[in-house]
Task: inverse folding
């Protein structure tokens, strides 16, 4: 296989695994390979069966390799789940050189102090994001390099994850001979694909209503400000339909996707959605939509409840952007606007070059976002494997590649 300036991302979701390969030789990444496989061995964003998860990832990677004829040697990988937590931290350093000019090295130092404050041994640091700096007490500075001062402060958003949960995901990917370029919090990735710079500046809530989890993130002043994860999403919608209408799970899933709406229009519709299973299951369109709507209303309300303050106009004047497969449900944005009384839209990744047509769906916001994140942050790896473990994995994958 050929070797070029290639970047890869792997979105390990609860419902699907999506691997994307892009050629980044030019200014905008050009998508050259996509591999989508159903996900197995995951529950609510976490690996629960390493072998099954590994096989699903292998399948998705192979498909992407086959369409592109490139090999996935390393990839940006998304992280989500209840084990992820975030908090706002503060760091401070003195500028001791004679000229008192802030240099890039000082930024590194002050970020290190912010990070060393609170990372317990069972947590792994994923991201340390500078929100703003202050020089000698003058706050709100985005880039203090070149300024004069005695004291440099930084306000950061620190995101950590449970070491054990990360290890399982890392193990699956590295055992396939794939190095991890960086582990990226999924909402951070999705935001790259669907939010405008303006929305991120003014303040916006982004919620990825996926299969197993709804990931909520608030962006303000150009960077992430708050993150939380709700353990309810599309899977619960399907389960409600299955239990409420007495249907097998697979048929409930099909009915939900094909006929489900949270703003149903009953006039002119047949009372019963046509049977779509071989066994001839038939259900009332109204019952189906009412069940789905009740759960979606709950999810939308929970998204807003997760906000640290109830006045959304202050925190997020740009409103709510929905991504994830479940935001494909008909009427989601309209219901959101009615229920929450704020601007709501569905975020679909756009401006994709190459063979990315199938990715223009809110379900692929994270997958595309991971790639865009990678392109933007190349060489600035924040997550580091243990040195010893890293060496063993590298040796093992080199041996595997030899026999490939
Ligand atoms: N047209 C549709 N209508 C309703 N629901 C849909 C539609 N398409 C996909 N879904 C739902 O979206 C969910 C999958 O979303 P997505 O692909 O974003 O999840 P994931 O990334 O695999 O999971 P997660 O991010 O939660 O780990 C499934 O529950 C599926 O039923
Ligand atoms: Mg997802």
Result:
């Amino acid at each position: 296989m050929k070797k070029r300036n290639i970047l890869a991302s792997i979105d390990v979701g609860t419902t699907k695994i999506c691997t994307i390969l892009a050629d980044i030789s030019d200014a905008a990444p050009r998508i050259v390979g996509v591999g989508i496989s159903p996900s197995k061995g995951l529950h609510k964003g976490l690996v629960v069966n390493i072998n099954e998860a590994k096989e699903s990832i292998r399948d998705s990677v192979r498909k992407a390799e086959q369409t592109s004829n490139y090999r996935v040697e390393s990839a940006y990988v998304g992280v989500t789940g209840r084990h992820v937590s975030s908090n706002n931290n503060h760091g401070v350093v003195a500028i001791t050189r004679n000229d008192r000019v802030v240099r890039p090295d000082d930024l590194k130092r002050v970020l290190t102090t912010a990070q060393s404050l609170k990372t317990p041994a069972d947590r792994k640091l994923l991201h340390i994001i500078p929100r703003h700096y202050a020089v000698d007490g003058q706050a709100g500075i985005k880039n203090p390099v070149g300024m004069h001062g005695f004291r440099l402060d930084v306000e950061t958003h620190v995101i950590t994850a449970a070491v054990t949960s990360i290890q399982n995901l890392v193990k699956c990917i590295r055992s396939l001979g794939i190095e991890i370029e960086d582990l990226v919090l999924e909402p951070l990735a999705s935001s790259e694909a669907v939010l405008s710079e303006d929305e991120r500046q003014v303040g916006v809530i982004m919620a990825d209503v996926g299969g197993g989890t709804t990931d909520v993130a608030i962006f303000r002043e150009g960077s992430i400000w708050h993150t939380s994860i709700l353990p309810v999403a599309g899977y619960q919608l399907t389960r409600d339909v299955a239990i409420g209408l007495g249907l097998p799970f697979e048929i409930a899933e099909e009915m939900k996707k094909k006929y489900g709406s949270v703003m149903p229009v009953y006039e002119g519709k047949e009372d019963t959605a046509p049977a779509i299973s071989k066994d001839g299951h038939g259900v009332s369109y109204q019952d189906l939509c009412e069940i789905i709507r009740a759960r979606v209303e709950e999810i939308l309300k929970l998204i807003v409840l997760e906000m640290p303050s109830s006045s959304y106009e202050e925190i997020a004047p740009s409103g709510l952007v929905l991504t994830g497969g479940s935001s494909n449900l008909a009427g989601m944005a309209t219901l959101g606007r009615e229920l929450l009384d704020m601007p709501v839209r569905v975020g679909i990744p756009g401006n994709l070059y190459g063979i990315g047509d199938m990715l223009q769906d809110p379900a692929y916001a994270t997958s595309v976002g991971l790639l865009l994140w990678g392109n933007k942050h190349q060489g600035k790896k924040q997550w580091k494997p243990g040195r010893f473990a890293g060496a063993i994995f590298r040796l093992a994958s080199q041996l595997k590649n030899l026999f490939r």
About this structure: Residues 285-305 form the longest helix (21 residues).
